[in-house]
Structure prediction request, 248 residues.
Amino acid sequence: MHEKEIFGSCAYGPHRPGAAAGGERRRRQMRQNLTWELNGTTLTISGSGDMYDYYSYEDPWGSTVETVVFSADMTSIGNYAFQGTGLTEVTIPEGVTKIGKTAFYNCVSLQAVSLPSTLKTIGEDAFKHTGLTSVAIPGGVTAIGASAFRDCQNLAAVTIASGANKSIKGNAFYDCGSLTTVTLGSGVTTIGNYAFQNCDLTEISIPASVTSIGDSAFYIIRIWRPSRSWTARTTQPSKNSLLKTAAV
Prediction:
């Protein structure tokens, strides 16, 4: 049977097909070598290989998921897989090389994620608008997708380990209003347009491996938010003070 037939028709909106309710237990196949089982609010993924890449709100387990147990033998997290779920923390197992686009988008309760050393790619919007407070990105990652951590208002610290050549795509950390500490390891080569715009950085050290910094990558626009006391103002750094305090 074709994979999409297993899950029935697609749904584009908040009402997802197959979403379990009230502690219902469900078990189905998601790939030839992967299966999932939902018991109450706990999702368990078993088997090996890549997850299926879903479309927006096509995932069959719905927004009720609060805990996910990954198979130790899986190799990717599918597109849109956990969008809008109630996850609070996630440990992605060693062996996973890709986190698909929008995989954890709008998981507003997600406060902590552990990324494996095998990870190579973080897709666009992967952790956008989540509750993460800090993130450590392994050295093997080669691409941090566009808007991957955009609008994470509680994100205060980011560490990108030294390792393979990697690019930080445009808007990757845009509008992370609490972000004060960023550590960039050697191997970072490109910082995309608006990558850290609207963050609260006061100091950053740019490694010698960086060859390109995009437009307004560190442009700071302070805007009033309910949790902030400053009045609305806009600051346009001069070319010489673009990074405020920087060691290049």
Helices lie at 3-7. The longest strand covers residues 42-50. Residues 1-23, 221-248 have pLDDT under 50 and may be disordered.
